[in-house]
C-alpha cells in the first residue's frame, strides 16, 4: 500500500521538475492542478516522499533486527534442549554480538 503511494509521489516529483506543455498535461493527469491552481507544492511532495522512504527503511531495519533476535533465541533454546549449554541468560554484549552475526547472515542471504 505504501509502495503505491511512494510511486505516485515519485511521479509527482518528476512532474514538478518538468517544464512545458508536456509537464502541464502530466500534472493535470496526476491531479496536481485544478483550473490552473496547484493543489500541493513541490516542496510538500518532496518532504512527504522523504518521510515515507524513511519510514519504509526504518520498518525494514526493525524487521531484520527482530528476525535476528528471534534466530539467536531459537539457537540458544535448541542448544539448551540438546544439552550443549545450561539454561542461562547471556550477557548483554554476548547477546548483541550474536544478534549482529545473525543480522549480517540474513543480509548476506538477501544479497545486501
What can be said about this structure in brief?
This protein has 112 residues and is mostly helical. Helix content is 76%, strand content 4%.
Structure characterization notes:
Helix 3 (42-82) packs across helix 4. It contains four helices and two strands; from the N terminus they run ααββαα. The chain is mainly alpha-helical.
Helical run tally: 4
Number of strands: 2
Shape verdict? rod-shaped
Largest sheet: 2 strands, antiparallel
Determine the mean pLDDT.
85
Helix and strand element order: HHEEHH
Strand content: under 5%
Mind telling me the C-alpha Rg? 24 Å
The residue fraction in helices comes out at over 70%
- Low-confidence parts lasting 5 or more residues at pLDDT below 50? none
Q: Span between N and C termini?
A: 24 Å
What keyword list fits this structure?
112 residues, mainly alpha, 4 helices, 2 strands, 76% helix
What is the topological layout?
Layout: H1 2-17, H2 21-29, E1 33-34, E2 37-38, H3 42-82, H4 92-110
Antiparallel strand pairs: 1-2
Helix pairs in contact: 1-2, 1-3, 3-4
